[in-house]
């Protein structure tokens, strides 16, 4: 992630009021030096928890200079087209962002120096309390307060299975609100940790194969899934997800190889290449809560995305696979056609 500051004579309290801007795309590897101006188009505004009122944070779409073509990394354009098409379906997303705190030397925060490992059983670190079992609570608490101040749909946080590994939750939110808030909350986390001299990593397997991994579970539903009789439609969507399993897996992380390391079938994960689903099964690709079948409606949890995935890409692909693609003109921007 990157950021830069702009001083204005009035406060843009909405994306429509915020001015477009530009940056040097050649310095970020997103443009050539002879055509480096890359466009920033505001899409979301929230309160700045660091400078506070009247300052704001502005989340932007990135477009190639001299055109209205989204940059190659701009998966928001793809997701937004699908959210707009299926607006009447009221897609809901709930995102569970896991992450690991590292000391400035690259080793786990609170882990023994010199490459040592915590002498703690993992079941005691999950939702743990006490310095023996967790590390970094002050950072997690500061991050939560910042996200709440900014007005994000921030729903909670907990210590995860691995020492110095945590999670926060965004949503359930309608449409683009969830992935937008997730990216803003990632930025806020990076800024908070910067003040503590701590590095945040979303790498799916940061400490190697003998330790738990880092994911971002996506909870997803549509109006039809949440309505009476929606369980049958959920099952239909699961069949579509199974038929497109490897297409999703190739786009469910920053790097396919590292998510493959995470999805080993161990530490409550499903194998990378094998699709599965089940009721209350945390080793399944898609998990349904027990009461969903009892009520005959609800949502699904996709447990496959890596911690470093792009939520715009994952949310968009869930919509595309379960409901269908966007219009022919918009589908050209789909980065996942292959």
Automatic annotation (TrEMBL):
<dbReference type="InterPro" id="IPR008146">
    <property type="entry name" value="Gln_synth_cat_dom"/>
</dbReference>
<keyword id="KW-0436">Ligase</keyword>
<dbReference type="InterPro" id="IPR036651">
    <property type="entry name" value="Gln_synt_N_sf"/>
</dbReference>
<dbReference type="GO" id="GO:0004356">
    <property type="term" value="F:glutamine synthetase activity"/>
</dbReference>
<dbReference type="GO" id="GO:0005524">
    <property type="term" value="F:ATP binding"/>
</dbReference>
<dbReference type="InterPro" id="IPR014746">
    <property type="entry name" value="Gln_synth/guanido_kin_cat_dom"/>
</dbReference>
<keyword id="KW-0067">ATP-binding</keyword>
<dbReference type="Pfam" id="PF03951">
    <property type="entry name" value="Gln-synt_N"/>
</dbReference>
<dbReference type="InterPro" id="IPR008147">
    <property type="entry name" value="Gln_synt_N"/>
</dbReference>
<dbReference type="GO" id="GO:0006542">
    <property type="term" value="P:glutamine biosynthetic process"/>
</dbReference>
<dbReference type="Pfam" id="PF00120">
    <property type="entry name" value="Gln-synt_C"/>
</dbReference>
<dbReference type="GO" id="GO:0005737">
    <property type="term" value="C:cytoplasm"/>
</dbReference>
<feature type="domain" description="GS catalytic">
    <location>
        <begin position="70"/>
        <end position="338"/>
    </location>
</feature>
<protein>
    <recommendedName>
        <fullName>glutamine synthetase</fullName>
        <ecNumber>6.3.1.2</ecNumber>
    </recommendedName>
</protein>
<keyword id="KW-0547">Nucleotide-binding</keyword>
<dbReference type="InterPro" id="IPR050292">
    <property type="entry name" value="Glutamine_Synthetase"/>
</dbReference>
<comment type="similarity">
    <text>Belongs to the glutamine synthetase family.</text>
</comment>
<dbReference type="InterPro" id="IPR027302">
    <property type="entry name" value="Gln_synth_N_conserv_site"/>
</dbReference>
<keyword id="KW-0963">Cytoplasm</keyword>
